[in-house]
């Protein structure tokens, strides 16, 4: 079932529910410019649904999806606020709530976990530092990151291309300013069990970042799962098959 849940600032968060009897719930968080229809989120949702494990996929506000808002106003902190609303909307009905993230959705789940304690984290292609990834993109685009950031700040927005839509969308400099407040070293304070899935050939999130993130998380129980060859979206048939195998392992590990 699809429905809307009011967020903190008057914007409606869009969610897709697949609910079954039981006291466990998985909340799925998409990546940058993503949605509940993104390949990794859809594939993971299908695994959970086939096992009759309740799951809620979230379209974050101010994104390119079915939720309210404008992409130009998109920030990671806004997504964390949305996740807090969703988490508390279901908390009383479930004994265990797990967070699943893909890419930037992992950072959203991790930032949330600094203040709350989900029952577990399933992180797929997680970056250690979103800020560093943005700096690398700026360097590749403009020759050096400083030039790119100065242009972004001066013009207030930059165009972000979404391949699926074949279109550009403006994104405010506030997005980067918001990322500067994130301190990844604080993830050592996270105690929830965690399973990390990453690709050795990810062209977007460097594999070393996912490994660094895994090593930083303070969880006593954690598991690292490698896909030897897959794009960031895991959307080739071989990559999808390997992803699904690791997702099943990750779910089993978290539920022990």
Automatic annotation (TrEMBL):
The protein's name: Esterase/lipase
Organism: Ammoniphilus resinae
InterPro entries in the record: AB_hydrolase_fold (IPR029058), Hydrolase_4 (IPR022742), MAG_DAG_Lipase (IPR051044)
Domain Serine aminopeptidase S33: start-end pairs: 75-233
Coiled coil: none
